[in-house]
Amino acid sequence: MDLDDCIVQLENEKQETLEQHAKRPCIRGNTSSEEEEEEGKVVEDTAASDEEEEEEETEVDTDSDSDSEYVQFTPRRLMTDEEIREHRRQVAESKGFDVDWFEGILPGSIKPYTLTEANRPPLIEFSKQALKVYNESNNTTFIFEKLIKSNAQCVAGTMFYITFGAQSGNIHGIFRARVWKKIMDEGSQVMSCEKYIEEHV
Protein backbone atom coordinates (compact mmCIF):
# COMPACT_ATOMS: atom_id res chain seq x y z
CA MET A 1 0.00 0.00 0.00
CA ASP A 2 1.47 3.29 -1.07
CA LEU A 3 1.25 6.63 0.77
CA ASP A 4 -1.83 7.84 -1.09
CA ASP A 5 -3.77 4.70 -0.20
CA CYS A 6 -2.84 5.13 3.50
CA ILE A 7 -4.12 8.70 3.52
CA VAL A 8 -7.40 7.65 1.92
CA GLN A 9 -7.87 4.85 4.46
CA LEU A 10 -7.23 7.21 7.41
CA GLU A 11 -9.74 9.71 6.05
CA ASN A 12 -12.36 6.96 5.72
CA GLU A 13 -11.80 5.77 9.29
CA LYS A 14 -12.07 9.32 10.58
CA GLN A 15 -15.35 9.83 8.73
CA GLU A 16 -16.79 6.57 10.10
CA THR A 17 -15.85 7.61 13.66
CA LEU A 18 -17.58 10.98 13.27
CA GLU A 19 -20.72 9.30 11.93
CA GLN A 20 -20.82 6.87 14.86
CA HIS A 21 -20.57 9.73 17.38
CA ALA A 22 -23.30 11.60 15.57
CA LYS A 23 -25.66 8.61 15.87
CA ARG A 24 -25.15 8.27 19.66
CA PRO A 25 -28.16 9.62 21.66
CA CYS A 26 -27.66 12.84 23.67
CA ILE A 27 -27.48 12.27 27.43
CA ARG A 28 -29.75 15.24 28.02
CA GLY A 29 -32.23 13.75 25.58
CA ASN A 30 -32.49 10.58 27.68
CA THR A 31 -33.61 12.58 30.73
CA SER A 32 -37.16 11.66 31.52
CA SER A 33 -39.88 14.26 31.81
CA GLU A 34 -40.23 13.42 35.51
CA GLU A 35 -36.56 14.19 36.10
CA GLU A 36 -36.91 17.46 34.19
CA GLU A 37 -39.93 18.42 36.30
CA GLU A 38 -38.08 17.53 39.50
CA GLU A 39 -35.08 19.61 38.43
CA GLY A 40 -37.33 22.53 37.58
CA LYS A 41 -39.00 22.21 40.97
CA VAL A 42 -35.63 22.34 42.72
CA VAL A 43 -34.75 25.50 40.83
CA GLU A 44 -38.08 27.08 41.77
CA ASP A 45 -37.69 26.06 45.44
CA THR A 46 -34.18 27.51 45.51
CA ALA A 47 -35.39 30.80 44.07
CA ALA A 48 -38.26 30.92 46.56
CA SER A 49 -35.93 30.27 49.49
CA ASP A 50 -33.61 33.04 48.26
CA GLU A 51 -36.55 35.45 48.19
CA GLU A 52 -37.58 34.42 51.72
CA GLU A 53 -34.03 34.99 53.00
CA GLU A 54 -33.97 38.46 51.43
CA GLU A 55 -37.30 39.29 53.08
CA GLU A 56 -36.01 38.07 56.46
CA GLU A 57 -32.85 40.17 56.11
CA THR A 58 -34.97 43.20 55.24
CA GLU A 59 -37.12 42.62 58.33
CA VAL A 60 -34.02 42.30 60.53
CA ASP A 61 -32.55 45.51 59.13
CA THR A 62 -35.85 47.30 59.69
CA ASP A 63 -36.00 46.11 63.28
CA SER A 64 -32.43 47.20 63.96
CA ASP A 65 -33.14 50.64 62.52
CA SER A 66 -36.23 51.02 64.66
CA ASP A 67 -34.31 49.97 67.77
CA SER A 68 -31.62 52.55 67.09
CA GLU A 69 -34.21 55.30 66.77
CA TYR A 70 -35.80 54.64 70.16
CA VAL A 71 -33.33 54.48 73.06
CA GLN A 72 -34.83 53.95 76.47
CA PHE A 73 -33.79 56.76 78.80
CA THR A 74 -34.41 56.88 82.52
CA PRO A 75 -34.13 60.45 83.84
CA ARG A 76 -32.37 61.02 87.14
CA ARG A 77 -34.55 61.98 90.06
CA LEU A 78 -34.34 65.20 92.02
CA MET A 79 -32.55 65.37 95.35
CA THR A 80 -34.62 64.44 98.36
CA ASP A 81 -35.01 66.93 101.21
CA GLU A 82 -32.54 64.91 103.25
CA GLU A 83 -29.97 64.97 100.42
CA ILE A 84 -30.41 68.73 100.00
CA ARG A 85 -29.76 69.34 103.70
CA GLU A 86 -26.66 67.13 103.65
CA HIS A 87 -25.37 68.78 100.48
CA ARG A 88 -25.77 72.25 101.95
CA ARG A 89 -24.01 71.17 105.14
CA GLN A 90 -21.00 69.86 103.21
CA VAL A 91 -20.82 73.00 101.07
CA ALA A 92 -20.95 75.25 104.13
CA GLU A 93 -18.30 73.32 106.04
CA SER A 94 -15.84 72.91 103.15
CA LYS A 95 -16.70 76.05 101.14
CA GLY A 96 -17.58 73.73 98.26
CA PHE A 97 -14.26 71.87 98.07
CA ASP A 98 -15.32 68.63 99.82
CA VAL A 99 -18.73 67.53 98.56
CA ASP A 100 -19.98 64.00 98.00
CA TRP A 101 -21.72 62.72 94.89
CA PHE A 102 -25.50 62.57 95.33
CA GLU A 103 -27.75 60.38 93.23
CA GLY A 104 -30.40 63.07 92.92
CA ILE A 105 -29.94 66.29 90.97
CA LEU A 106 -30.26 69.87 92.21
CA PRO A 107 -29.86 72.84 89.84
CA GLY A 108 -26.84 74.95 90.76
CA SER A 109 -25.41 72.35 93.12
CA ILE A 110 -21.69 71.62 93.48
CA LYS A 111 -20.61 68.16 92.37
CA PRO A 112 -17.34 66.20 92.16
CA TYR A 113 -15.66 66.69 88.78
CA THR A 114 -14.17 63.53 87.31
CA LEU A 115 -10.53 63.95 86.31
CA THR A 116 -9.77 62.58 82.85
CA GLU A 117 -6.89 62.89 80.41
CA ALA A 118 -8.94 65.46 78.49
CA ASN A 119 -9.89 67.80 81.34
CA ARG A 120 -6.74 67.58 83.48
CA PRO A 121 -4.68 70.06 81.36
CA PRO A 122 -7.14 72.98 81.69
CA LEU A 123 -7.55 72.32 85.43
CA ILE A 124 -3.77 72.35 85.86
CA GLU A 125 -3.63 75.62 83.94
CA PHE A 126 -6.35 77.10 86.18
CA SER A 127 -4.38 75.96 89.25
CA LYS A 128 -1.22 77.68 88.02
CA GLN A 129 -3.22 80.80 87.24
CA ALA A 130 -4.63 80.84 90.79
CA LEU A 131 -1.21 80.13 92.32
CA LYS A 132 0.26 83.09 90.45
CA VAL A 133 -2.39 85.35 91.98
CA TYR A 134 -1.62 83.91 95.43
CA ASN A 135 2.15 84.45 95.05
CA GLU A 136 1.68 88.03 93.90
CA SER A 137 -0.67 88.79 96.79
CA ASN A 138 1.46 87.11 99.49
CA ASN A 139 4.97 87.73 98.13
CA THR A 140 5.70 83.98 97.93
CA THR A 141 7.26 81.70 95.33
CA PHE A 142 5.16 78.53 95.38
CA ILE A 143 5.46 76.27 92.34
CA PHE A 144 2.65 73.99 91.21
CA GLU A 145 3.25 70.30 92.00
CA LYS A 146 0.16 68.22 91.35
CA LEU A 147 -3.58 68.32 90.78
CA ILE A 148 -5.45 66.58 93.60
CA LYS A 149 -9.17 66.92 92.83
CA SER A 150 -11.86 69.29 91.65
CA ASN A 151 -15.55 70.03 92.08
CA ALA A 152 -17.69 71.97 89.63
CA GLN A 153 -20.79 74.16 89.63
CA CYS A 154 -22.73 75.55 86.66
CA VAL A 155 -22.89 79.36 86.94
CA ALA A 156 -22.97 81.17 83.56
CA GLY A 157 -20.13 78.86 82.65
CA THR A 158 -18.44 76.65 85.24
CA MET A 159 -17.07 77.44 88.68
CA PHE A 160 -14.25 75.03 89.51
CA TYR A 161 -13.33 74.27 93.12
CA ILE A 162 -9.78 72.98 92.64
CA THR A 163 -7.54 71.38 95.24
CA PHE A 164 -3.86 71.14 94.28
CA GLY A 165 -0.40 70.84 95.77
CA ALA A 166 2.47 73.33 95.50
CA GLN A 167 5.98 73.72 96.93
CA SER A 168 8.25 76.56 97.92
CA GLY A 169 11.65 75.48 99.23
CA ASN A 170 11.05 73.04 102.08
CA ILE A 171 7.38 74.01 102.40
CA HIS A 172 4.68 71.86 100.84
CA GLY A 173 1.22 73.35 100.71
CA ILE A 174 -2.25 72.14 99.80
CA PHE A 175 -4.15 74.94 98.07
CA ARG A 176 -7.80 75.54 97.34
CA ALA A 177 -8.76 77.77 94.44
CA ARG A 178 -12.04 78.85 92.91
CA VAL A 179 -11.67 79.59 89.21
CA TRP A 180 -14.56 80.69 87.05
CA LYS A 181 -14.48 79.51 83.45
CA LYS A 182 -16.76 81.99 81.74
CA ILE A 183 -19.45 81.11 79.25
CA MET A 184 -18.89 81.44 75.47
CA ASP A 185 -15.12 80.92 75.85
CA GLU A 186 -14.65 84.38 77.31
CA GLY A 187 -11.68 83.29 79.40
CA SER A 188 -11.33 82.49 83.09
CA GLN A 189 -11.08 84.43 86.32
CA VAL A 190 -9.53 83.51 89.67
CA MET A 191 -12.14 84.13 92.35
CA SER A 192 -10.06 82.99 95.33
CA CYS A 193 -6.96 81.01 96.24
CA GLU A 194 -5.83 80.08 99.74
CA LYS A 195 -3.30 77.78 101.35
CA TYR A 196 -5.31 75.13 103.15
CA ILE A 197 -2.56 72.94 104.65
CA GLU A 198 1.15 73.63 105.11
CA GLU A 199 3.87 71.07 105.80
CA HIS A 200 7.59 71.61 106.41
CA VAL A 201 9.98 68.94 105.17
UniProtKB/TrEMBL annotation:
Keyword set includes DNA repair: no
Superkingdom in the source lineage: Eukaryota
Coiled-coil boundaries: none
Domain Cystatin: 119-172
Record flagged with keyword Transmembrane: no
Keyword terms of this UniProt record: Protease inhibitor, Thiol protease inhibitor
Region (Disordered): 14-71
Pfam families, A to Z: Cystatin
One Gene Ontology term of the molecular function aspect: cysteine-type endopeptidase inhibitor activity
Residue ranges, compositional bias (Acidic residues): 47-68
Name of the protein described by the UniProt record: Cystatin domain-containing protein
Source organism: Arachis hypogaea
Highest classification ranks of the organism: Eukaryota, Viridiplantae, Streptophyta, Embryophyta, Tracheophyta
